[in-house]
């Protein structure tokens, strides 16, 4: 196969829309790899909430382990796998925190329960029991009782992954898969085919 689309972000968005159709999984789900300054790797799934020509946006607790890694070594990689399309997309690049305005806008759009969860959970920190977590949630519920618009906690927000490379992998017969690596060059991207 050939990739007709020169713009990997447009290509990503097109394929993401196709992946949604009849998917038995959440197509915005991606594995996010980070590394500590000392080179300790770490990977976990996240939901990639918004993608455009600036990059890929994820949201999390800024005191979590991933945030600590992203803040000390602001480079990351994402891998999507859309099994219904037989497609993998890998993104690598530099990471920066989103502006408070962008994080506020996303937080405002979340359901109330997710907002309370964001306030209540000291993500990645040790807790004694599930009861402790429930007690933290109840405390936050009491705090915001009667408050219609729960504000975003300043310890929670987004990161933007600014792609330097985007690779598309398409399942092929006899393991002869197609791979297209887009590398950022100036304002655009250069595309090379890689052996599977
Ligand atoms: C499908 C899926 C989606 C997830 N989405 C997010 C997310 O968008 N943000 C987030 O902070 N954690 C998300 N998580 C939880 C993370 O995988 C992880 O457990 C958590 O963020 C703590 O990771 P850390 O200790 O490396 O910071 C998700 C987990 C799964 C399985």
CATH class: Mainly Beta
Can you tell me the CATH superfamily? Electron Transport, Fmn-binding Protein, Chain A
Order of helices and strands: HEEEEHEEHHHEEE
Task: Give me the number of helical elements.
Answer: 5
Q: Note poorly predicted spans.
A: none
Beta-strand portion reads 35-45%
Q: Return the CATH architecture.
A: Roll
**Which molecules are bound besides the chains?**
flavin mononucleotide
Number of individual domains: 1
Structural class: alpha+beta
Q: Overview of this structure, please?
A:
The chain has 196 residues and is an alpha+beta fold. It has a single domain (8-110, 153-194), classed as Electron Transport, Fmn-binding Protein, Chain A (Pnp Oxidase, Chain A). The chain is built from five helices and nine strands. It has helices at 8-20, 65-72, 100-108, 112-120, 130-143, and strands at 29-35, 41-47, 50-52, 55-61, 75-82, 87-97, 156-170, 178-185, 188-194. Strands 1, 2, 3, 4, 5, 6, 7, 8 and 9 form a nine-stranded antiparallel β-sheet that branches. Helix 4 (112-120) packs across helix 5 (130-143). The longest helix is centred in the C-terminal third of the chain and has 14 residues, at 130-143. It is elongated and about 55 Å long. The mean pLDDT is 95. The protein binds flavin mononucleotide. Residues 29, 42, 44-47, 58-60, 64-66, 123-124 line the site of flavin mononucleotide (FMN). The site of flavin mononucleotide has 14 residues, from strand 2, strand 4 and helix 2.
